[in-house]
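Look at a sample.

——
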Amino acid sequence: MDGYEGQRSFLQAQYLFTEPEMQSQFAGAFAFEFSTEYVNAAPSSPYPFKKLGGQNYGVGYFSPENCDDITISCVFNPLPCFDNLKRAYEYNANLNTPIFVPDEGRNGTVPSCPSQFPPIDTFSWPSDRGGDSLTVLAIVFLLVVTWVLLLTWWKFAQERSLHDNPRGSMNTNEELSYLLDKHPTKRPTEDYSATVSTSSSATSINTHL
């Protein structure tokens, strides 16, 4: 049908809803899937699923083939069987199905699990192990944040130290110039300043000043 193999007619949807006797007895659905599952269907029925395959349960498929509806938007493409199901439902457009009312004998009690099967909480599920990964990520995040804060504090302390004590990062000649600028009235004689070339000389000048 329109190039697609194995398309369902869905005539049962039309006839089951036509007979009142069948309406009161039927329970279930007609279409198993809205969209064909690519992972399951593609091995036996290549995209766009025109060949009859063991997993062609959907009444449509999404395009383009690599869409994920996150980075690439998906568009639904109805198959011919989609229109067949639509016509079957339209045939009984005025159908008024009865509302399900449970029997009075039902008390809603959950039955006990069979003794031959282990309780479900004894199984280890992959999703349960995801908590360990989240814990590790949280610890790594906290360590990174702590490291950034310590680095920021250290830089701030260095800048504050230089601001409070500008001589801390000076070499001998810079410290001498700083002292002479601070105390212009106590400038040493030419002969004395000429002898200053080492840190010990700067220390001597600092002592005299």
